[in-house]
Amino acid sequence: MSESLWARTAIEQNRRWLSAYVLTLTGDLNEYEDLVQETLRIAYEKRNSYQPGTNFSAWLKTIARNVCRRYMEERKRLPLLNYEEAQARLDQLIDESEQRLSAFEEIRKQYLEECLEELNKKSRRLIMLRYGRGLSLKQIATLTGRKLSNVTVTIFRIRAILADCIRRKENNQLHPITGV
């Protein structure tokens, strides 16, 4: 994964819960955003120490906890809440949220597989070449004997069809996170 993609993904997927976590631990409305930034900066610097396949949120939470602890020690402040109780409850909520998100991702993956099956063979082959084998659009054009512009437009349209199919399937089911 490229470094910029890693950073964007880490920020995008974790900023909200991380902000709530840091704010709860410190109770500091003026500094929590800086503490979140510091947490993400440290995570980025230590990204090579993260073991893929392990719990990323737990790894990030440990960094945030240490950033908050250092912040509180430097200011000789006590947390507003019982630190251990707040941390335990937040950990529980984050774990529950991760489980719901994981279930949601599995359902979306299932929907994608079902929608791929609904495509005709030519469309499915183009998608598999692009995303299954990771070929570039230019490589696909060469391999299939099509113009690059044709391949680009066709894959764009197939992706739109897949997205619409997944949305239809989601709308016919209760949302696994909200239950609505």
Report on the architecture of this protein:
With 180 residues, this protein is mainly alpha-helical. It folds into two domains: 3-81, Orthogonal Bundle (Rna Polymerase Sigma Factor, Chain: A), CATH 1.10.1740; 102-171, Winged helix-like DNA-binding domain superfamily/Winged helix DNA-binding domain (Arc Repressor Mutant, subunit A). It has seven helices and no strands. It has helices at 3-26, 32-45, 56-74, 83-118, 121-132, 137-144, 148-171. The radius of gyration is 22 Å and the shape is elongated. The model has no long low-confidence stretch (mean pLDDT 82).
In short:
With 180 residues, the chain is an all-alpha fold. The chain has helices at 3-26, 32-45, 56-74, 83-118, 121-132, 137-144, 148-171. The protein is 76% helix and 0% strand.
What is the beta-strand fraction? Answer: under 5%
CATH class of the largest domain: Mainly Alpha
Calculate the mean pLDDT score and round it. Answer: 82
- Give the domain tally: 2
Helix/strand structural class: mainly alpha
Radius of gyration: 22 Å
Distance between the termini: 35 Å
User: What is the name of the CATH architecture of the largest domain?
Assistant: Orthogonal Bundle
Uncertain segments: none
Strand/helix succession: HHHHHHH
* CATH topological fold name of the largest domain: Rna Polymerase Sigma Factor, Chain: A
Specify the overall morphology: elongated
